[in-house]
Design goal:
Chain lengths: 320, 341, 292
């Protein structure tokens, strides 16, 4: 390429090929970026290796029956996580359903001009503060506020709508319902913050074009803004679901740690992560290996959910 | 970030990276049952002694023993002492010393019922779920003149595995063959599946759940129940006497304990007339051979403190001071710390 | 002469609820308000609980005194605040550069490559990683080899929890930088590194910052991983390779105690943790706004 000569002597040329130092810096940057990717992959492999190694004795001894049994009896050496698998999936799906509706609503509320800018900034910061509250505190809040508050509601629902499977049992205190409520609130900041960023990144032109074509505000939001921000919002849901799957301490305090499988949200349940939190401290020998096996199952579920999510997003991209 | 800030941060990191050399620092982990008492002991001991600081984190007896076997802590604490298998895994490098003792109480929530007596044939059945209502004839017979409501019993148990559960279930299994055949004894047992059986984490979770649920019954440590003012039931012991926790019932129960060669003793069903049925020792585990002689000396001083001044603190926090005979035996065994195998 | 075409009908500019579109628009606003308020209720409830139970103890004593034992009155948790700040700093040092570089890799350097697809997928899987397992993993990797619990191991466990969130939100933020900007930079002869450092990353900074703050907020309050990596200490921090106090473990310990003094301190510590994260949040937004 012909070198453009500078207009005045001493001023730097506007266009020039990269210097040797800049090329080296570029190579280092590329290498560093690739290395970061490798670190993340390596981290997962390291984790799977360590946990898999720990789980191997239990895998050999219990086999796949581990996934089909709902009995957890360290004294007799019987372990099974069927109830926990059910609880994990049921609670995470319910919590994500609630958190996604509330989170996306909050994101729309704060970015589409429903609130004065400064108030919106305060509300946004307040939601992010929710993310800072320790898991243990959510557990305490659940025990002292949510469970007593749910008691009358649950009694009424059970009395009048008890024929519906989700309300089929009486409320006993620590159970699925307070766990789901608290889980939804813990996932909400993630969904709300990332959805807000996604919505904010849609260029103003797009929104103004929609109005210019005569759309009402709700049409502009539902038919133009949300689809434009769809990938970011879906990403927030995936991150939120991940957070829900892995939540340990708060659920351990609220879900009732019971090895039963039930559609009722008022019955105690258990999740894989809270099983780990409850049993790990006192476990030894075979029980530790069984807990590692349960951890492997949790990772497998996380993997499966993400595979499904990726496929859904790929279909979404092809169709849209 | 400006270079000077980075430089200062790096210098600080280097300075902090090297382990501190001035103090002798002891770290322990394990049971949560004695944690409040140990916290008080270690703080007082560190303040009194010159250059020794002791830290303790409660995370469960099993986790403490794991830490001890992995040599990431200097000592451990356990409600269930240490099994022969674990002692073998430590290569015999373990001195078990009972340090204090406590009682496990049955708490209940019955508005208007100030005192409740639970017979020996009744309370295991409550935990088994075979007695389901408060106005059951067997409970009423033991509590004449008390207006027991016609409400279902909600049983609250621990959701996390714990030494407290181990001690309660060991007692229930010793008293009731049906309980031994069913849930059995252990840090975490398969409680009977029922809508009326609820699990909550740690002592505070169980107590809060019991207090929020009218008609609930649960179990916790005496110290916790006493300091929070939770109503406790009187239990009938093997001699047929109803004993309340907190008096000398616990000390009497443990006085009959027979220690084995490793200083272990479990009293699952005491037969003295004044004994409280559920009382247990709790142990600290120290190494026989220690690399650092200063640490060994510090540990021996710690045990000496615990056996002398420490026992005076026990009662105010809800624990049972060790009987004098036991103190002397522990003092003798403590000489093995740091003495090499 | 042609007949004049009839005058076009004047448009009806009145908004009538009989019109389906206007109706659905009128429904949306109150619906969003209701949902937003519904989301605000638990927030207000938790903050109210924190302020009412933890507020009375706020004071200088919390920063200067050590945790009390048993029936002791007073006390504070200065060592726990220091410990939390130190371990969060270590976690940021470990996870933020790797996370941002990883996000740059996924969003800018080689977004379509196979390594990127695998990394992105694994990042999403890791966001669901239970916090207790991060602790167990770092315990096996660092604590056992170092022979003791330490602040370094605690920071490493928090970094494992933070890394996926930082990386994935950084990728999202970098993807959202308009292609025009990146293309213009490359067109002016920038190397990839220069385009990234001077154009893409600064433009994506607000989004990256959101991710880092979310990750820090989520990691700082986690007690499960710290229980297996940093344990706890009732004394001031003297070294990075010794058991270290943290607000999360203090709350875990004290909240289950039967002593009112310690329960009050647990609530005060929860409030302190939220305020610290809030402060980091506000400060970093101010800094990034000044830069922009």
């Amino acid at each position: 390429m012909k070198r453009v000569e500078p207009a005045e002597a001493g001023s730097r040329p506007v266009f020039r090929p990269p210097s040797a130092g800049e090329v080296v810096a570029d190579r280092i940057f590329h290498a560093g970026a690739h290395a970061a990717g490798v670190v993340v992959v390596g981290l997962l492999f390291g984790i799977v290796a360590k946990i898999g190694l720990g789980a191997w004795p239990a895998v050999r001894q219990l086999g796949l029956g581990f996934l089909g049994s709902a009995v957890w009896d360290p004294g007799r050496g019987e372990f099974g996580v069927l109830a926990e698998i059910w609880g994990t999936l049921y609670s995470s799906c319910l919590a994500l359903a609630i958190a996604s509706v509330l989170g996306v609503a909050v994101a729309i509320f704060l970015t589409q001009g429903f609130l004065d800018d400064r108030l919106a900034a305060v509300f946004r910061t307040a939601i992010e503060m929710l993310a800072a509250i320790p898991s243990v505190v959510f557990g305490l809040w659940g025990i002292t506020v949510v469970i007593p508050a749910l008691r009358p509601v649950a009694a009424a629902l059970h009395a009048h709508l008890g024929w519906l499977p989700p309300f089929a049992t009486a409320f006993s205190g620590p159970s699925l319902a307070p766990g789901v409520v608290v889980l939804a609130i813990m996932v909400l900041p993630t969904v709300a913050a990332i959805s807000q960023d996604a919505l904010r990144r849609v260029p103003d032109r797009t929104r103004e074009a929609a109005f210019g074509l005569g759309a009402t505000r709700s049409e502009a939001i539902t038919r133009v803004m949300l689809p434009a921000a769809a990938s970011g919002i879906l990403a927030s849901l995936v991150l939120g679901f991940g957070r829900a799957l892995g939540e340990t301490m708060a659920l351990a305090m609220l879900i009732g740690n019971s090895g039963r499988i039930s559609w009722s949200v008022f019955a105690p349940a258990n999740t894989l992560a809270s099983l780990l939190a409850s049993q790990f401290p006192e476990a030894s020998g075979t029980e530790t290996a069984a807990l590692m096996y349960a951890a492997t199952v949790l990772l497998a579920i996380s993997l499966g959910v993400n595979v499904v999510g990726t496929l859904v997003m790929a279909c979404n991209r092809k169709a849209g | 970030m400006r270079p000077s800030f980075v430089g200062a941060a790096l210098a600080l990191a280097v300075a902090l990276g090297a382990p501190a050399v001035a103090d002798t620092r002891l770290t322990g982990s394990g049971a949560s049952f004695p944690a409040p008492l140990y916290a008080a002991w270690f703080k007082d001991f560190s303040a009194r002694s010159d250059g020794v600081t002791v830290d303790y984190q409660s995370k469960g007896s099993g986790a403490g023993i794991q830490d001890y076997l992995n040599r990431v802590v200097d000592f451990a604490a356990s409600d269930a002492a240490m099994t022969d298998a674990d002692i073998a895994r430590a290569g015999g490098n373990a001195v078990l010393l009972p340090m204090t003792a406590g009682e496990i109480v049955v708490i209940y929530n019955l508005p208007g019922v100030a005192a409740l007596k639970l017979p020996r044939a009744v309370y295991p059945e409550i935990f088994l779920g075979t007695i389901t209502r408060w106005n059951d004839a067997r409970i009423a017979a033991a509590n004449p003149g008390v207006a027991l409501p016609d409400t279902p019993i909600t049983v609250v148990v621990r959701s996390d595995s714990s030494g407290t559960t181990f001690n309660l279930t060991s007692h229930l299994a010793a008293v009731d063959p049906a309980f031994a055949a069913g849930p059995g004894a252990g840090t975490s047992v398969p409680w009977p599946a029922s809508d009326r059986l609820v699990k909550a984490p740690k002592n505070d979770g169980v107590t809060a759940t019991v207090m929020q649920t009218p008609g609930a019954v649960g179990y916790t440590e005496y110290g916790y129940a006493k300091l929070t003012g939770t109503p406790m039931a009187e239990l009938e012991n093997r001699a047929g006497v109803f004993v309340a926790a907190g008096g000398k019932g616990g000390a009497v129960a443990l006085a009959a304990a027979r220690f084995d060669a490793e200083m272990r003793a479990f009293v699952t069903d005491p037969d003295d007339t004044e004994a409280y049925p559920i009382a247990t020792f709790t142990w600290m585990i120290f190494p026989k051979s220690v690399a650092d002689p200063e640490k060994a000396a510090a540990m021996r001083q710690l045990v000496a403190y615990a056996l002398d001044e420490g026992q005076a603190m026990a009662e105010s926090l809800g624990y049972i001071p060790l009987p004098a005979a036991v103190i002397e035996r522990v003092r003798g065994a403590a000489a093995k710390i740091g003495a090499g195998s | 002469m042609a007949t004049p075409s009839p005058a076009p009908e004047a448009p009806d500019l009145r908004r009538s609820l009989a019109d389906r579109r206007a109706l659905s628009d009128s429904v949306l606003t109150p619906l969003l308000w209701a949902l937003a308020l519904l989301a605000a209720v638990p927030l207000v409830s938790v903050l109210h609980m924190l302020v009412v139970r933890g507020g009375p103890r706020l004071g200088l004593a919390l920063l200067t005194e050590l945790p009390p034992a048993g029936l002791e009155p007073g006390g504070g948790f200065g060592n726990a605040i220091v410990g939390t700040l130190v371990m969060v700093a270590i976690a940021c040092l470990l996870s933020v550069p790797v996370g941002i570089l990883g996000g740059a890799f996924l969003g800018f350097v080689a977004p379509e490559s196979r390594l990127a697809a695998v990394t992105r997928f694994i990042g999403k899987v890791l966001t669901g990683f239970p916090s207790i397992l991060a602790g167990v993993f770092v315990h096996a990797a660092l604590v056992l080899s170092m022979g003791s619990y330490s602040a370094l191991a605690g920071g490493a466990a928090l970094a494992v929890l933070m890394l996926p969130t930082v990386m994935l939100t950084a990728e999202q933020a970098i993807r959202m930088v308009p292609e025009r900007m990146t293309a213009a930079a490359i067109g002016m002869g920038c190397t990839d590194a220069q385009a990234a450092m001077r154009v893409v990353l600064p433009a994506a900074l607000p989004g990256i910052l959101t991710g880092v703050l979310l990750a820090v907020a989520g990691a700082a309050g986690n007690s499960a991983p710290l229980l297996f990596t940093a344990l706890f200490s009732s004394y001031w921090l003297s070294s990075l390779s010794e058991p270290t106090a943290s607000l999360a473990i203090l709350i875990y310990n004290f909240s289950g105690m039967p002593f009112p003094n310690q329960i009050e301190l647990a609530w005060a510590a929860s409030l302190a943790l939220v305020l610290i994260v809030l402060a980091i949040n506000v400060l970093s937004r101010l800094v990034s706004a000044r830069r922009a």
